[in-house]
Design brief:
The protein has 123 residues and is mainly alpha-helical. Helix content is 67%, strand content 0%. It is elongated, with a radius of gyration of 23 Å.
Length: 123
């Protein structure tokens, strides 16, 4: 496995190989290469704690119980409405676990605009 320090050398080698060719396949490969290169450069910068162009969303602490109460649902109703197991919801409310990924996004949207989410569920 390559280390982050070795990635710039691999990028230089690939650039040299792609730069010496012509034709439509090479142009397509060059575009793919540029995209991959950009992603690798951002990953290297991120690993070195340098500023990067990617937008990183950082959601703060989440009070799941207050969000549930805001929509006026019991634990059973909330879990059933949003496809969350009752046990998971209880862990979130106690703070034993934290919601992640799409669940966190859903809870954020539900916290900021409960009416829209509830209306979407009705239709």
């Amino acid at each position: 496995m390559q280390t982050i320090a070795e990635l710039p050398e691999y990028l230089r080698r690939a650039e040299k190989l792609l730069g010496d060719n012509e034709g439509s396949e090479v142009i397509e490969m060059s575009e793919a290469y540029k995209s991959i290169k950009s992603g690798l450069e951002q990953a290297i910068a991120h690993a070195k704690n340098e500023p990067i162009q990617a937008v990183v969303h950082d959601f703060g602490p989440m009070d799941v119980k207050s969000i549930r109460r805001k929509v006026g649902m019991t634990q059973n109703e909330f879990a059933s409405s949003f496809g969350i197991s009752l046990g998971t919801l209880r862990h979130w409310e106690r703070g034993d676990r934290k919601p992640r990924g799409p669940a966190r996004v859903l809870l954020s949207v539900l916290d900021s605009d409960p009416e829209s989410v509830l209306n979407a569920l009705k239709s």
